[in-house]
């Protein structure tokens, strides 16, 4: 089952995350199927590839709760995805 989740990158105490499509059994920093954006919690900077995200969501990919909150804040999805 594919999931839309965050992959941690960056240094210690300076986290940055990539928004990726991964198999749910893959470890957090494993190899993604596709990268669809990024999020930096320190500077609150984010980028989401809306076309790719909507395409993958239409295929049945389930976002994690944190990703769903980020997408709701960016007005990409309206309710629970």
From TrEMBL:
GO terms for biological process: mitochondrial translation. The keyword Plastid applies. One of its GO terms (molecular function) is structural constituent of ribosome. Keywords: Chloroplast, Plastid, Ribonucleoprotein, Ribosomal protein. InterPro entries: Ribosomal_bS16 (IPR000307), Ribosomal_bS16_dom_sf (IPR023803). Belongs to the bacterial ribosomal protein bS16 family. This is Small ribosomal subunit protein bS16c. It comes from Plagiogrammopsis vanheurckii. The lineage of its organism: Eukaryota, Sar, Stramenopiles, Ochrophyta, Bacillariophyta.
């Amino acid at each position: 089952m594919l999931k839309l989740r965050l992959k941690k990158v960056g240094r210690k105490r300076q986290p940055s995350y990539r928004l990726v499509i991964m198999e749910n059994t893959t470890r957090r920093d494993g190899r993604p199927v596709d990268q669809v954006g990024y999020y930096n919690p320190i500077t609150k900077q984010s980028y989401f590839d809306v076309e790719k995200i909507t395409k993958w969501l239409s295929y049945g990919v389930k976002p994690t709760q944190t990703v769903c909150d980020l997408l709701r804040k960016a007005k990409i999805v309206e309710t629970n995805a």
